[in-house]
Amino acid sequence: MATVFPHSLLTEFDVSLIRSGQHYRLYKKLGSHLMEKDGQWGTFFAVWAPNAQEVAVTGNFNFWSEKSHPLFLRSDDTGIWEGFIPGVGKGTLYKYNILARDGRRLEKGDPFARFWEIPPNTASIVWEAVHDWNDGAWLSQRNKLVGKPKPYSVYEVHLGSWMKKPGGSQSLSYRELADELVAYVKEMGFTHVELMPVMEHPYFPSWGYQITGYFAPTSRFGLPEDFKFLIDAFHAADIGVILDWVPSHFPYDAHGLADFDGTHLYDHADPRKGFHPDWKSAVFNHGRWEVRSFLISNALFWLDEYHADGLRVDAVASMLYLDYSREEGQWLPNQFGGRENLEAVIFLKEFNEMVHKDHPDALTIAEESTAWPGVSKPVKEGGLGFDQKWMMGWMHDILKYMMLDPLFRKNHHHELTFSLVYAFSERFMLPLSHDEVVHGKGPLIDRMPGDEHNRFAGLRLLFGYMWTHPGTKLLFMGGEFGQTSEWSIERGLEWWLSQYDYHKGVQAWIKDLNDFYTHSTALFERQFEPEGFEWIDHADWQNSVITYIRKGKKEKDVVLVACNFTPVLREKYRFGVPFAGQWLERLNSDAKKYGGHEAANKGNIRGKKMESHGRAYSIEINLPPLSVVVLEPVRVAMKKKKAAILNSLGKSLANGTA
User: Fold this and answer.
1) Is the separation of the CB atoms in 248 and 318 below 8 Å?
2) What sign does the CA torsion over 537, 538, 544, 546 have?
3) Which DSSP symbol is given to 241?
4) Which DSSP category does 644 fall into?
5) 12-125 domain in CATH 2.60.40.10?
6) Are strands 472-476 and 153-157 parallel, antiparallel or unpaired?
7) pLDDT one-digit tens code per residue, 161-208
């Protein structure tokens, strides 16, 4: 049966929003939608292809005929083709057959498709993902915490390579990940996961960053319903889900967005703006309002339909600068002669404003590596409007520093302390991401010099410094147990390593760091404020030791941190403390349970009235080699221990195990 001209899903109000470039729920109107019309069930199709001569729906329901089911061009100026096809139901494979003005016939997937064939197949699939959500309590609590300080300890995951099935090549499904991954992240104490792009992509080794199906979770691991089930499972375990999102560029695959109606519809025609030299991909034309509406609708789709808790925006720096990775003569300046991409700036501000308007409790994070001002400042204050920004400078400096032989670290002490010069200029997230364990860089453990013991001590020191440094935390999978080979998407993580003591020790250390961080207001309450940090001594370069205070809003809510970046025991190391009283060691990366030598500071440590570092009171501790020692006032530590015992007892009573 031929296509029937529809009673369109687009209302006059929709058209007015589209014309003004302010329709931010296009996924509800365009794409394929199951519906009933005149007593017949079928599918309504709508696609934006303003420069096409003809558009038809071709699929397994009509033997992939080019012309048997044409769509009709709306009489307004929206450039949208639409039609209703009776009998086409859920699970139908389809594409749009587009006759371009130059006579070419193009077969394109649906930009708004909710489901796609498993690559390398490329058809879109008519689909509606039905799922009964059980995360009402999670969403309610998320909403209550808007604007309040929260800990963010994020575990970055590539779903296809976190763990493989027996045999070593097949990835776990969404449903299997809901059992295995959720339980593991919960056990390790992370507050969030960040999933590398789950949107459909044709080339697995792109890690998901070359997207063709912006509105569909990849079918490699199951159905869209299964992905919703996974997110629901994370929420049931009190774990937030951040999705990696790519509004900067897209691939040139024939079934994708490139050359969609025979023209540069989504990208720039001029390669000096439209071709990305790093990724050999097409750059979105953010100056076109239809493109901005497409992308913002996509962002809101994942928050609306999949209950995502946030979006980490990939490659923001590449969007902000017209000359990014381009030589002289390979880029075009803006209207004022500058290198700033003013169109992308407008888009990013609009994106953040709309996300925070409709989902004020959702998080947006920028992967941005330059000194662009105000990335995490609200739009109304002149910023881009992100909630957080990756602290790439800290990451580069600390990894470069940790690779040095400890003998020479004293000559590079400034690289260790420089991050605190600008630590509060943005709301920073400290990232040790997937980018640091690929392309020949090797695993994090390989950055640590020395014998096996010192390498693992150095890795624990790195993590201890990271977790006590101002800012939120992100760690890529495998780092938490000391993966010893470079990450590969073809293999799962080296889980067999976790049977060995050093690896078990790193795992235990991360678990305890997460527990301490998420329960210590001194570490997260003011993690974006200069009032939340105070140096005790940043100038002990000869010993490669730094000492500092992390502070909450209450006067006595403090944590002392001492880091020793040499393999030398510093006995009776004295440093000033903010007030009189007794202190208790809460964390020591040299403890035996973590793989250390147990150079612990046992019992209460009394602050003496002895001037040190310009302070009236000071303490002495043993500072083990390549270690982090964390102390709290005894009263605060005892209160936390009592609360933890009561909490554990309450859970036991609730479970009937007390």
Assistant:
1) yes
2) positive
3) E
4) H
5) yes
6) parallel
7) 999 998 878 999 999 999 999 999 999 999 999 999 999 999 999 999
> Which residue bears the tokens 């470039």?
21
- pLDDT for residue 57 is more than 60: yes
What are 46's strand-pairing partners? 31, 82
Domain 547-643 has CATH 2.60.40.10: no
CA pair distance 337, 334, nearest whole angstrom: 5
The DSSP string of 574-587 is EEEESSSSEEEEEE
Q: Which residues contact 499 (CB under 8 A, 6 or more apart)?
A: none
Beta pairing partners, 533: 550
The conformational region for residue 194 under phi > 0 = left, psi -120 to 50 = alpha, else beta, is beta
Q: What is the pLDDT of residue 647?
A: 63
Residue 480 CA to residue 415 CA, distance in Å, equals 24
Q: Tell me how far apart the alpha carbons of residues 206 and 211 are, in angstroms, rounded to a whole number.
A: 9
Catalytic residues: 314, 367
Q: How many CA atoms lie within 13 A of 93 on its CB side?
A: 12
**452-468 vs 501-519: helix axis angle to the nearest 10?**
10
DSSP state of 593: G
pLDDT above 90: residue 6 = no
User: What is the reported pLDDT for 318?
Assistant: 96
Q: What digits encode the pLDDT tens for the residues 356-399?
A: 999 999 999 999 999 999 999 999 999 999 999 999 999 999 99
Where in the chain do CATH 2.60.40.1180 domains reside? 547-643
Please tell me the distance from the alpha carbon of residue 490 to that of residue 287, in angstroms, as a whole number: 38
Contacts of 385 (CB under 8 A, 6+ apart): 348, 349, 351, 352, 353, 356, 364, 377, 378, 379
Percent of the chain with pLDDT strictly greater than 70:
96
What are the residue ranges of CATH 2.60.40.10 in the chain?
12-125
Alpha carbon distance 169, 229 (integer Å): 24
Tokens of 625: 């080699």
Using the predicted structure, report yes or no on whether residue 654 has a pLDDT greater than 80: no
The span from the CA of 211 to the CA of 257, in Å, is 9
How far from the centroid of its chain's Cα atoms is residue 23's Cα?
26
In 3D space, the residue among 328, 237, 248 whose CA is nearest the CA of residue 285 turns out to be 248
pLDDT tier, 656 (very low <50, low <70, confident <90, very high otherwise): low
Contacts of 274 (CB under 8 A, 6+ apart): 264, 267, 268, 282, 283, 285
Match 């590596």 to its residue by tokens: 369
Q: How far apart are alpha carbons 657 and 586 in whole angstroms?
A: 28
Q: Mean pLDDT throughout 599-624?
A: 91
351: which residues sit within 8 A by CB, 6+ positions away?
247, 292, 295, 296, 299, 313, 364, 385
Angle between helix axes 289-304 and 12-20 (nearest 10 degrees) is: 120
* 600 pLDDT tier (thresholds 50, 70, 90): confident
CA pair distance 484, 481, nearest whole angstrom: 9
Residues 430 and 154: their CA atoms lie apart, in Å, by 10
Among 367, 384, 214, CA closest to 296? 214
pLDDT at 480: 98
pLDDT tens per residue, range 105-117:
999 999 999 999 9
Residue 408: phi and psi, rounded to 5, are -105, 0
For tokens 């992905």, the residue is 227
Residue bearing tokens 């109606």: 261
Positive or negative, the CA dihedral 643, 534, 415, 387 is positive
